[in-house]
């Protein structure tokens, strides 16, 4: 804890004032949404999806009670341009808001940089990188080096023509080691054109498989990541950031460690804001097929996971591509244990036929990561509840 | 938005000189190495430079040329380029400092006969100088005949945990003996199948160092070396960190790190990426811009049956380099289906090669923020179009004169994008897709 | 101990005939195991406390029977067995359970949750309604200290599997509670069209003596006098294949002294029972990877090494390139070649084909 002197308080106030002034001077908040006639941020064109997110900071609570400072994206859908900065500071979510688009739709994603309130000395831009977007162009790729990135108080609208269905994710790419460690990561997926048609008893599919092999009844995201608590505390207390020593000791699924993974409600941070909005409890009726949209965005670890369902996991796709060879050969993988490296994403089908109703577990077989820091029986674990018919 | 793309031709020609000065040139499409069937290597100690401004002791394989002169050790060792079915002979001598250990080479994936030297755990080893070896013990001769083309590696088989960490490894490329059935003799193939065709190739050889180990070696504190505490803080592609890997091959200020990593290509071309895990850690490499296709692993096509070619190839944007293993990836980019004209064309402009015709002339879809609302990255040309350029703020380096599309190819274990605590560094590289009119040799 | 020679192809026909006679009988593979504490001696002479399984051939589960080993003894389910039954005697002072990744525990009456960290209340079968702080302790039903529990897997699928403790796995599996369970599809066939002549089992795992000593002393975990709260900073000092590190004599050549003639097929069953990924690597030969986690691959893969993640199993075939004698290094591609910092050590061995003594070298071409 830093003790502030009287001079210290004045300096902080002065910095805050200058920072707020800088914000308003170059303020360029502009949510672009073609076809939005009434200003609610929703396009009247069914082929256009508009989303508004904000890049900034906030707080989260780990499963052992530790409060950690984060950077993250907040959800500003429907917030008028002139309210975005006022309303959206300290609203970072972990993971960032989920983005879902249908194949064939165009996504206009506006990201407004609302600044880092807890660190008024930071002037970092933010970007959005859609990880895995095919044939991307740098202007919308979110890499700060070959593109413009939004400064504090400003917006950038990213445009994506979503032609390839699959499981992806997105994250900020500014000083990636720092911003991603700090939590600017979120789920993203594109549903296939085949959705809604009936094949093999399914109407929901992960891909345009043509034969129902990626058909599912219920789907859940499994976004694996981790926090290095020392890094976050250093950021919170304006210390030098320990890159070389970076080591995630709070491994998480969808932004929470066990048992918070099974809590149904938002986890409230120390400000009373529900920053961690995505529970990871997996539920299905016996006999159903569960789709897991799996990704790993840890900046330090690969994670391996398994389930205790007693049935294999069928990996039908990796990297947002059906596991089929160039001439259509089935290259899907049937495993009990799956290793996910940073940046990898997989679509995993769990067929619960023959599984007795009850509670099972999805957990990391990297057993050291069943931890919330120095607290055991936590980390990467969630529960799978199979209900009777 | 101005149709800036139309004016790019003239500016490209004028500014090519400036561009070439910054980015590595030389053979952009080929891999630098030594071709032949007979190589004489020496294990030696030397120094490399890391992008945080530090330097560190390494051990590497040096080359003795035809005139009998041995150069400095290099990190990584020389890329050896050989031909399928042609027997290869490699001699190895040991000039490592006293007590560093014997020296040896193992060649995973090949059946090797080793003669001379002394018996070691994995193979024959060239004896340490201070143990007064006989002439026979001083040198090992390794012979093998590569029976399959592909991407392989070689590394030390002596006290491998330490010697591989110190830098005793390198790439081994086996080229096909002949054009595959149904192939074009003017084209390049990685394997004996037409579906392994490529236009350009690049090496991605991954390694890492723990500075504590290297300092202990430098101080000769052998009994302090403890690999259970191994914790690398420096990561390398082809022996250099970012941004050193952007510079040319054989740049004089990196005398022991001859290889760069600066792939460039045009839309529609195929780039073969020879992907090698030479160290001890797994690195998930993520390729911005488009998917790659993995066509081979460990020097074997991903094939359902002999002769079927890579019919089990899989695509993704991220692949892990497994320690000691290799993979071959094919990458290409056309910008298709983006929904807007990537050249900023008017509809009456001609199509560029591989341009996606349905998007031709389609307008840019959003209003870009004004210049003072954003930070322009160093590789931003000022224009969103391929080959384009635009007004840049004062002080901007103008490092993308030809308006190429830059894609970061980097490790997705992002702590590895640092060099000894300094951001940026480590496993960052950039593929540049250049406008079709920009010459890349 | 971890190798077996299988009858050559000629004998297979006889066996197949016998099997057809026996067809239709659903048989069970039944074992009596104890789990308890022991000490394991590392290659450098130091001793580490372990918890492991021991097979009790007398089937009466008195504490005197069943020597404990880490890894535990190999259990086999015959090709025509559909059921695996284990009677488990718990000689530890905390509850245990069993779990096999990929197989269904048919008589599962767990899981078991407790109030964390006190562990004074337990809930069995389902999470108590509205309670979001209880944490699972065991994936399956528990066997209390001093008790005998029964675990039953029906419709047991063929392949190579890892049986582990299902209780606080970060603690109990780390201490050594694991063993291989193997079922062939037919005598001499790992899968329907994957015959083999000779089998090796290779289990990778690591040991962090600081954590294991704390676990044995009761100062690990969410306990009042804990010196180590969790395994998150796991830093192993020993790296083992089949419970041995180089230069343990049993590891120098992990196939014993059997001959493998040119063209014969060596099946290696790899299991990763540790907490870190390993890379089984063979120098000089290629392996054909036929299955992962007991699931036969649609298309086998030719590699000289591959990534073996934690909890994963993989079956490969190596074809003998020539008549004996030959040997090829088999080791961890991540180069974990140390015993507590000293070299040589760790995960290094050879697969070896030896000339049978009674034949003598000159009779082998």
Mean pLDDT of chain B: 93
Residue share in helix of chain B: under 10%
Report, as a whole number of angstroms, the end-to-end distance of chain C: 29 Å
Largest sheet of chain C: 7 strands, mixed
Q: Which pair has the most extensive contact?
A: A-B, 68 and 67 residues
Number of helices of chain B: 4
Distance between the termini of chain B: 32 Å
- Point out poorly predicted stretches of chain B: 1-22
Instruction: Give unreliable regions of chain C as ranges.
Output: 7-24, 361-365
Beta-strand fraction estimate of chain C: 35-45%
Q: Which secondary-structure class do the elements of chain B indicate?
A: mainly beta
- The helix content of chain C, as a percent range, equals under 10%
Q: Could you describe the 3D structure shown?
A:
The complex is a heterotrimer of chains A (about 400), B (about 450) and C (about 375). Chain A is mainly β and about 400 residues long. Chain A has helices spanning about 5-25, 85-90, 175-180, 230-235; strands spanning about 50-60, 65-75, 95-100, 105-115, 130, 150, 155-160, 165-170, 185-190, 205, 215, 220-225, 250-255, 265-270, 275, 280-285, 290-295, 305, 315-320, 320, 335, 335-340, 345-350, 360-365, 370, 375, 380-385. The model of chain A is unreliable at about 1-5 (pLDDT under 50). Chain B is mainly beta. In chain B, about 10% of the residues lie in helices and about 30% in strands. In chain B, the strands form six sheets. In chain B, strands 14, 15, 17, 19, 20, 21 and 23 form a seven-stranded mixed β-sheet that branches. A five-stranded mixed β-sheet of chain B has the order 3-2-5-9-6. Chain B has a five-stranded mixed β-sheet with strand order 16-26-25-18-22, with no helix packed on it. Chain B starts with 7 loop residues before the first helix and ends in an 8-residue tail after the last strand. With about 375 residues, chain C is mainly beta. In chain C, the strands form six sheets. In chain C, strands 1, 16, 17, 18, 20, 21 and 22 form a seven-stranded mixed β-sheet that branches. Chains in contact: A-B, A-C, B-C. Strand 6 (about 150) of chain A pairs antiparallel with strand 24 of chain B, so a sheet runs across the interface.
């Amino acid at each position: 804890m830093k003790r502030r002197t009287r001079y210290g308080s004045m300096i902080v106030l002065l910095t805050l004032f200058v920072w707020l002034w800088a914000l308003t001077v170059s303020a360029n908040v502009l949510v672009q949404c073609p076809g939005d006639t009434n200003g609610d941020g929703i396009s009247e064109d069914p082929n256009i999806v508009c989303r508004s997110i904000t890049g900034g900071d906030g707080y989260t609570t780990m499963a052992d009670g530790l409060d950690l400072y984060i950077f993250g994206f907040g959800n500003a859908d429907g917030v008028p341009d002139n309210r975005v900065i006022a309303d959206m500071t300290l609203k970072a979510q972990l993971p960032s808001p989920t983005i879902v688009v249908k194949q064939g739709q165009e996504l206009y994603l506006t990201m407004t940089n609302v600044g880092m309130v807890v660190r008024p000395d930071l002037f970092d831009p933010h970007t959005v990188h859609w990880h895995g977007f095919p044939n991307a162009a740098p202007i919308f790729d979110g890499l700060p080096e070959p593109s413009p990135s939004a400064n504090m108080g400003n917006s950038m609208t990213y445009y994506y023509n979503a032609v390839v269905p699959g499981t992806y994710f997105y994250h900020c790419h500014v000083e990636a080691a720092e911003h991603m460690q700090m939590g600017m990561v979120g789920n993203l997926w594109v549903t296939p054109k085949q959705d809604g048609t009936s094949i093999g008893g399914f109407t929901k599919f992960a891909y345009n498989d043509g034969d129902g092999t990626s058909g599912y009844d219920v789907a859940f995201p499994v976004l694996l990541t981790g926090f290095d608590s020392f890094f976050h505390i250093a950021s919170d207390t304006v210390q030098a950031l320990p890159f070389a020593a970076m080591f995630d000791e709070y491994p998480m699924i969808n932004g929470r460690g066990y048992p918070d993974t099974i809590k149904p409600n938002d986890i409230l941070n120390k400000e009373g804001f529900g920053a961690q909005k995505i529970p990871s409890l997996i539920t299905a009726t016996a006999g159903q097929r569960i789709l897991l949209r799996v990704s790993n965005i840890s900046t330090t670890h690969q994670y391996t996971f398994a389930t205790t369902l007693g049935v294999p996991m069928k990996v039908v796709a990796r990297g947002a591509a059906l596991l089929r060879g160039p001439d259509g050969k089935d290259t899907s993988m049937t495993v009990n244990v799956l290793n996910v490296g940073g940046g990898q994403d997989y679509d995993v089908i769990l067929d619960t036929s023959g599984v007795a109703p009850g509670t099972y577990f999805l957990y990391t077989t990297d057993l050291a990561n069943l931890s919330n820091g120095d607290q055991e029986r936590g980390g990467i674990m969630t529960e799978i509840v199979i209900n009777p018919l | 938005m101005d149709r800036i793309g139309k004016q790019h031709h003239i500016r490209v020609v004028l500014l090519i000189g400036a561009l070439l000065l910054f980015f590595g040139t030389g053979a952009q499409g080929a891999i630098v190495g030594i071709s032949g069937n007979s190589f004489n290597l020496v294990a030696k100690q030397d120094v490399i430079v890391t992008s945080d401004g530090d330097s560190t002791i390494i051990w590497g394989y040096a080359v003795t040329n035809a005139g009998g002169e041995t150069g400095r050790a290099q990190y990584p060792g020389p890329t050896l380029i050989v031909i399928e079915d042609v027997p290869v002979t490699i001699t190895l001598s040991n000039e490592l400092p006293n007590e560093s250990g014997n020296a040896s080479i193992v060649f995973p994936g090949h059946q090797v006969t080793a003669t001379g030297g002394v018996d070691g755990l994995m193979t024959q080893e060239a004896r340490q100088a201070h143990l007064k070896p006989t002439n026979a013990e001083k040198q090992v001769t390794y012979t093998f005949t590569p029976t399959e083309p592909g991407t392989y590696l070689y590394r030390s088989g002596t006290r491998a945990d330490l010697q591989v960490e110190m830098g005793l490894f390198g790439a081994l490329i086996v080229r096909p003996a002949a054009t595959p059935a149904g192939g074009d003799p003017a084209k390049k193939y990685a394997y004996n199948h037409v579906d392994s065709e490529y236009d350009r190739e690049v090496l991605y050889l991954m390694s890492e160092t723990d500075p504590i180990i290297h300092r202990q070696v430098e101080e000769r504190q052998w009994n302090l070396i403890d690999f259970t505490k191994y914790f690398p803080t420096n990561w390398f592609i082809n022996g250099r960190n970012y941004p050193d890997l952007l510079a040319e091959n054989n740049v004089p200020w990196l005398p022991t790190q001859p290889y760069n990593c600066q792939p460039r290509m045009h839309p529609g071309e195929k780039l073969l990426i020879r992907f090698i895990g030479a160290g001890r850690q797994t690195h998930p490499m993520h390729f911005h811009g488009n998917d790659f296709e993995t066509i081979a692993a460990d020097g074997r096509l991903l094939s359902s049956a002999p002769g079927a070619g890579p019919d089990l190839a899989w695509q993704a944007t991220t692949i892990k380099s497994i320690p000691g293993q290799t993979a071959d990836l094919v990458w290409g980019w056309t910008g298709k289906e983006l929904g807007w004209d990537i050249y900023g064309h008017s509809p009456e402009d001609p199509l560029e090669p591989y341009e996606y015709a349905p998007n031709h002339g389609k307008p840019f879809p959003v209003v870009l923020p004004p210049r003072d609302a954003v930070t322009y990255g160093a590789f931003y040309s000022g224009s969103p179009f391929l080959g384009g350029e635009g007004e840049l703020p004062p002080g901007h380096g103008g490092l993308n004169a030809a308006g190429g599309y830059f894609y970061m190819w980097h490790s997705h274990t992002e702590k590895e994008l640092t060099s000894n605590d300094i951001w940026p560094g480590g496993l960052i590289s950039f593929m540049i897709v250049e406008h079709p009119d920009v010459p890349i040799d | 101990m971890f190798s077996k020679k299988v009858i050559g192809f000629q004998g297979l026909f006889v066996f197949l005939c016998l099997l057809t006679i026996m067809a239709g009988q659903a048989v069970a593979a039944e074992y009596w195991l104890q789990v308890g504490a022991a000490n394991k001696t590392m290659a450098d002479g130091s001793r580490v406390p372990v918890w492991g399984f021991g097979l009790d051939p007398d089937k009466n589960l008195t504490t005197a029977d069943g020597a404990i080993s880490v890894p535990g003894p190999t259990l086999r389910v015959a090709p025509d067995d559909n059921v695996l039954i284990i009677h488990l005697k718990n000689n530890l002072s905390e509850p245990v359970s069993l779990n096999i990744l990929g197989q269904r525990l048919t008589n599962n009456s767990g899981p078991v949750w407790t109030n964390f960290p006190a562990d004074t209340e337990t809930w069995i079968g389902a999470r108590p309604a509205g309670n979001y702080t209880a944490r699972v302790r065991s994936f399956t039903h528990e066997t209390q200290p001093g008790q005998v529990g029964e675990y039953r897997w029906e419709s047991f699928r063929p392949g190579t599997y890892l049986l582990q403790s299902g209780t606080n796995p970060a603690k109990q599996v780390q201490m050594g509670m694991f063993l291989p369970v193997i079922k062939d599809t037919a005598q001499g066939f790992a899968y329907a069209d994957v015959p083999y002549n000779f089998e090796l089992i290779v289990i990778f795992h690591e040991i962090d003596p600081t954590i294991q000593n704390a676990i044995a002393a009761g100062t690990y975990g969410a306990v009042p006098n804990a010196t180590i709260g969790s395994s998150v900073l796991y830093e192993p000092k020993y790296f083992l294949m089949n419970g041995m590190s180089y230069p343990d004599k049993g590891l120098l050549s992990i196939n014993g002294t059997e001959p493998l003639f040119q063209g014969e097929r060596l099946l290696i069953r790899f299991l990763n029972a540790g907490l870190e990924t390993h890379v089984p690597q063979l120098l000089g030969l290629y392996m054909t990877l036929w299955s992962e986690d007991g699931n036969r691959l649609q298309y086998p893969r030719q590699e000289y090494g591959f990534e073996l993640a934690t909890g994963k199993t993989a079956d490969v075939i190596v074809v003998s390139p020539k008549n004996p004698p030959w040997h090829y290094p088999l080791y961890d591609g991540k180069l974990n070649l140390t015993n507590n910092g000293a070299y040589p050590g760790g995960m290094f061995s050879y697969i070896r084909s030896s000339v049978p003594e009674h034949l003598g070298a000159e009779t082998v071409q």
